[in-house]
Structures are given as structure tokens and as C-alpha cells.
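Q: I'm writing up a methods section and want to include an example of the input and output format. Could you take the sequence below and give the corresponding predicted C-alpha cells, formatted cleanly so I can copy it straight into the document?
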Amino acid sequence: MRRGKLWVGGALLAAIVAIAVLSPYLVQADPRALAPGSRLLAPSAAHWFGTDQLGRDLFARVLWGARISLFVGVSVAVLSALIGTAIGMLSGSSRGLDAIVMRVMDGVMSIPAILLAIALMAVAGASVVNVIAAVTVVEIPRVARLVRGIVLSLREQPYVEAAIAAGTTPPMIMIRHVLPGVVSPIIVQATFIWATAMILEAALSFIGAGTPPSTPSWGNLLADARALWQIRPTLVFFPAGFLFVTLLAVNMLGDGLRDILDPRQEPRI
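A: Here is the clean output for your methods example:
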């Protein structure tokens, strides 16, 4: 059962990534091409998911949205994991910096994530790069606190004390003895950050504070479709369904990794 969630989540995610990468070959329609004469068509052989209010092919737009969402999620997960790990290790290894750094992290975490992301986007402007930067800033404190707690715990281990007694320099102790103990929890945390980043990106785009309206992200597709819910509900179902399945796959992958990498976890059904 431990590996079951890992394999199912990994397989679903691999399928979604493959669809996103191969989207230019799976559909020939331009996701931005306007066709006023083909507005709000129902799903058919010509348009698998139908068309939107401007005649754009919804299947092409949903697949393109997968590329945007996955790119944002992976970028935020990698950047926040790297930066948060560096901050957490620095804070955990220096008592002088610990109080200052952690108070700054606490201050950032005290602001609701979506509000902080909206404020940052209001300053930076709508773009995919700015969405990645804003969501990364939101997620860094969570990684930093996790790493800092692990570092404080590992510093008391006998093998670290032995390395200190042997005269090993503090940087080498952190790299050789502490960093390996941080890697597994950070990998697991990164998967959950990946899912959170996709949710935040969709939420920001939905309210008009994320990716530009011309970019066919899942959040923009849902924002465009909300006024047409009663006329053409498939405009909502398809992007929402893809987002749901992707989040489910990432979370199952994270749960599976946590169960395998953390030996203290009890098997769960």
C-alpha cells in the first residue's frame, strides 16, 4: 500500500506531463486563434472539448494550460526548496542569526498566502515569471522553518558531536552530516509545495491577478467560463477536471514518498 500511492500518483502525473509536453503534436489548433463563427460549440470530433465564447478550441487551451500550471508548480517547488533550505540551514547553524531570520519568516507566514501573493502581484504585474516569484516568496518560510527544525535536531546527534570534537569545520559539518538528513523531508515537502503553487496560480489567474488574460492557463479558463456556466458548463468542467486530477496525482506522489522516505510513518490504508 505504501508503494501503491507512489505508483498511482506517479503514473497519473507522468501521463499529464506527457500530454502537456506533446500537446503541440496532439492538437493542431492554435489555443489563441479566434473564430467568431465557431463560438460556444459543443464537444465534437472537430473540437473535442468544444469552443469558448470567442471560438477558440478548448482542448488546445486546456492542454496549453497544463504546461503553464506544471511549469509554475515545478519552478516554485524547486526555487522554494533551494532557497528555503539555505535559509533554514543558516538559521539552524547560527544562534545569532536564528532569532532574526525566524522572526522575519514568522512575519511572512503571518500573512495569508493568497493575500501576500495578490499584494506581490499588484506590485510586480501580471506575468508567469512574476507568479512564480510571488508564490515562491510565500512558500520559502515554510521550507525554512522545516529545515531549521531538522538542523536543530541533527546538531544534537552523536555523529555530529563527534565531528565537532574531531575539529571538522562548521561548513563541512553542515554539508557532510546535516544536509543528507534534510534531503528526504525536503523532497516530500517540495511535492506538496508543487500542488499548493498550482492552486495559488489558478486562484490568482481566476481573480485577474496572475497570468495575463491572453495566456490560456487553467485559472484564466475558469475565469472566462464562470459567466457561461448555465449555457456551456463544459467550459468549467474540463479545466477544473484537469486541475483536480493533477493535484490528486501530485498529492498522492507526495504521500507515497513520505511513507517510503520517513521510516517513522505508520502504514496507512
